[in-house]
Amino acid sequence: MGRGLRQSQRSLSALLDRPPAELKKAVEQIQPFFQTAATTALDTKKPVLERLSALRLLAYAPASVAEKTLGHLLSPRHPAEVQLAAVRALAAQDRPSLAATLLSGWSGYTPALRRECLEVLFASPRRLEALLEALEKKIVQAGHLEPARLDQLRKHRDPKVRQRASKVLAGAAAPERQKVVEAYKSALELKADRMRGREVFKKNCATCHRLENEGYEVGPDLLATLKNKSREQLLQDLLDPSREVDSRYVNYQVTTTRGLIVTGLIATETASSLTLRRGDKQEDVLLRSQIAEITATGKSLMPEGLEMQLTKQDVADLIEYLLGVVK
After folding, report:
1. DSSP 3-state assignment of 208?
2. How far apart are CA 244 and CA 177, in angstroms?
3. Are both 168 and 115 inside the same structural domain?
4. What is the mean predicted confidence (pLDDT) over 243-264?
5. Arithmetic mean of pLDDT, 286-310
6. Domain boundary among 141, 174, 207
7. Among 224, 230, 275, CA closest to 246
8. What pLDDT is attached to residue 8?
9. Would you say residue 47 has pLDDT above 80?
């Protein structure tokens, strides 16, 4: 029911907040289910899968329940899966306080959590205004955003967003990819540690790649891809991922008739819908009747700017791990 209302541009949580007279009794009867879900989601002793199920329900909960719960779950004391699910539940609520809630703990977010928050913030010009304000106040640093996101701000279809972004991001030009690759070539000479590399993979790559039962299968099959890679080629792939892009993994940007922006690779198409897939194998199903515009970015789904998160030693360890897996 909640999904159906969302497709019709209405919200179940809004309906539960302000039910018509004929539904008030029914709403009162289902309130305890949401309260129980909130308690479960916050309980660190509950199994993660049980907490995730509760969070899926909270995506449709009334504000009186959802807002007290979801923001707390963005704390690093909760598992990554729970944090990411909380962001998605907040996005489904789409309340005026959404952007402020997502940005309040920014400094303590992991790269994966930041990417998910940015996906939500970039979906709406209204939310982007809050992000730009955070950039102006240095709550968020320009370096925290991938080059493709910075470019998206500078070229945004909303002139107000575009103009403000140009001022905020002046001097924050992305480095040329080849210069970054050249600067990191010395990493190939460092003594590398495969186990450290495995941890680097889990933290930075597992949202889109799966190896040794870790991560999600969104990007190419690494076991097949890595077999013919040299260290030099792998360094290039890591730091300049859009230099050569398989058309299956090109990132698309879709603007809906409501003005929302969704990004991801095209996972499936039907006569009536399009499914976009992104990190953590999250999917957005869009009815063709709701699509106003679709654009291929020409960029890989794999983000540029990995050097902002990894030292040369991290890169050396990651390459050692990746090549060691296929030996």
Report:
1. coil
2. 12
3. yes
4. 88
5. 89
6. 174
7. 224
8. 45
9. yes
